[in-house]
Write a structure and sequence with these properties.
It comes from Crenobacter luteus. This protein has 360 residues and is of the alpha+beta class. It has 4 helices and 16 strands. The longest helix has 55 residues.
């Protein structure tokens, strides 16, 4: 007997259309979910990348700003500003500052009466950019400090008589960030009472050929060591590389970022060097803690973009703007990240009040 034709019938046209429609809805929903998830993932990746750029920029600037104005035992920001309490106690005596060479330009200059290791300068026409210019979106932040150290090893202060300073490294194989290279040209020679800036090869200062590092000064620029005012204290005498750097946000060769210029060890001007990508702007404010009149004084922080007296600056507040480049599907997005840095070379008034309270 032949099978029934009804049992061999397939899907009807209506059933097929319903199945295709339902399948299409499922595919569209899955595709939309996938695209939405991919877009969210892309945005998250962009956000993480921007955070990493901002973190790198803030970490680099914070590291140098904490060292601004610090040259071993000689910390001009702490010493030149003689803040006293009601009892007349002076926390630090003055540091005599001498510069033994004529700076080639502002990149080599250190102003003992002004910014004391950090300042902002106009980017347009700056001597920092004489090799290659960044299309800056704001001013440049200049930071200066001493890096690496070498100790005077002679038992007698030769610097006081013959004018020769014999030095040796503190470490046998010092790390690059702490070692003082024998090729360093710009040097800071500091103690707790005096700070000398010298350039090897200028004004009669020459490098010797002895073991370690040897510098010879002419009689007209001899370093004095002893107990007299303005003389170096023998036990605290160090020689450091004079680090002078400038940071600026802007565009260079079509790439947005944070760029650094620096005086290299051999005296040449290096830069721009990209520190972090996608940085579109840096905003800087300088804060002073006004609580220097004893332990019971109220604490007040005043911020300014242009301090009346740079020597009073205790804090630096940074605001970094990072911006993702636009694409065909998404517009450019920007985010801001900030931090506040306590300048190591400052004499924070909160600490001063505590010391003054204990001393009175």
């Amino acid at each position: 007997m032949k099978p029934s034709l009804a049992r061999q019938a397939g899907f009807s046209l209506v059933e097929l259309m319903v199945a295709l429609t339902l399948s299409l809805f499922v595919i569209v929903a899955v595709s939309a979910s996938y695209l939405s998830g991919r877009q969210a993932s892309r945005k998250l990746e962009e956000r993480i990348a921007l955070q990493q750029d901002a973190r790198l920029a803030l970490a680099t600037l914070s590291r140098d700003l904490r060292m601004a104005g610090v040259f071993g035992c000689a910390v001009p920001a702490m010493s030149n500003l003689e803040r006293s309490g009601p009892s007349g106690v002076t926390l630090r005596e003055g540091v005599a500052i001498h510069q033994h060479f004529t700076p080639e330009d502002d990149t080599e200059a250190f102003d003992p009466h002004g910014p004391l290791g950090f300042r902002t300068v106009a980017a347009s026409g700056s001597s920092w950019m004489k090799n290659a210019a960044v299309a800056a979106t704001g001013p440049m932040l200049v930071v200066q400090f001493g890096q690496g150290t070498a100790a005077v090893v002679d038992s007698q202060p030769k610097v006081g008589g013959s004018g020769t300073v014999s030095l040796t490294r503190l470490d046998t194989l010092p790390p690059a960030e702490r070692g003082l290279s024998g090729n360093a040209r710009l040097l800071a020679i500091g103690s707790c009472s005096r700070l000398d800036f010298v350039k090897v090869g200028q004004n009669g200062v020459v490098r010797g050929a002895s073991a370690g590092i040897q510098l010879t000064f002419p009689a007209s620029a001899a370093l004095t060591v002893g107990q007299a005012n303005g003389a170096h204290r023998w036990g605290s005498l160090d020689v450091m590389r004079f680090v002078s750097r400038a940071y600026v946000a802007g565009s260079y060769q079509g790439r947005q970022g944070l760029y650094m210029y620096e005086r290299a060890e051999n005296g040449s001007l290096v830069g721009p060097v990209e520190i972090a990508a996608n940085v579109s702007r840096i905003a800087v404010e300088f804060g002073t803690i006004n609580a220097c009149q004893g332990a019971g004084a109220a604490t007040k922080i005043t911020y300014s973009t242009s301090p009346a007296d740079w020597r009073t600056v205790d804090l630096v507040r940074l605001l970094i703007t990072v911006e993702s480049p636009p694409s065909s599907n998404t517009p450019a997005t920007s985010r801001q990240y900030g931090t506040t840095i306590a300048v190591r070379g400052s004499n924070l008034c909160v600490n001063q009040a505590k010391v003054l309270g204990e001393a009175s």
